[in-house]
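Troubleshooting: if your tokenizer reports a length mismatch, compare your output against this known-good record of 373 residues.
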Amino acid sequence: MTEKTSPYIFPFQSFRHLDRMTENATFLPSRTISPAELTPLIERFAPPLDLPPGGSLAERILGLFLLPGVLFGKPEFVTSRAEAWLAAIEDRLSTDRPVEFTILGFPFKMPVPLKTDRRAADFGEVVGLCRLNRIGEAIAAHHLPGARVHLLSEGPFHELNGLSRDWADAYFASLGHVVDLFGIGTHLALHDLNVVLDEEPDFRPAWTAATEDIRRRRDAGDPRTLDAIRDALPVRFHNIANPGVPDEELCRAYRGDVEAADLRASIAARAEEGVLAYRGFLEARDRIGLLDRLVPGGLSMTVSPRPGRLGVRPLPLPADKLPYHGVPVIGAKGQTLRIDYLWDLKRGGGRFEPLRIGADTDPAPFLYREVRG
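Known-good structure output:
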């Protein structure tokens, strides 16, 4: 996973081949495999974890988040708050309660055909979810009451991306499907934030108020607000749905071609509003203490590392995108996993075998395997 991080959002990764309109990759006939055949790859990219040796159990649990395969961001983000983290962990241990964590993410497959042609979770999500489950597994091996990672799926962001709720609801259902199919949910609990918002009547007013507060801070030139918008805007710009727009026209808008200036301006305007609402959502979450309502005393994890959040690496290197922003590709020797934008995959040369699984809920490939020769 890329070492480029932001305290506000997982950073945007640029397309590599927007200069190429013609596809030049070769795709072999697709092949259907069983979920069991993917087990060795899951074990490779989401291997079992163990607590580091030495110190108290609380110190070993915190040390888990400093392991190279887990840590995302600077170690100081963890160690600078060590006293508070240890107190929170010890509170769970001393009262024989499960150690519980929260993390937000996995909203839906991005509605951008240049990124992916799927709407359901695929092998990238399987690996990412399994890596979260491994954290709970490692702790439960030493703490009888166990551990659980609560994943709060950011389905409400469909409102920021020009999507119907059905798009996010179907994706959330697909997350549950792959968790059950691959047996990676022992220490993982999935929560649909769309449903949570339905049940928390004070959240939406808080979201609206926070969004307007951020708009005022932006207009006043508040440095932190401007920094957060700067980091989030490229991500939001390349996530916006543009139904009916041909792929080639969207490519031109992304490149900044003069003939696509109107489309680019439209996307930019919607993205700017989306960033304000995105930041407003996160502020409203904290204002009403939403996470603590759902998981009292839960320790917060993130893929946007900063002090006060435990940064966790969502996928192993060399992957540099979150799984719902592209398609999963296994390297030719089976030793690497990366997430490629579909546009780039089709225009980067090479040979690929699309792999499907019989139990899939989506007709597009579940993953791609690079083939040499």
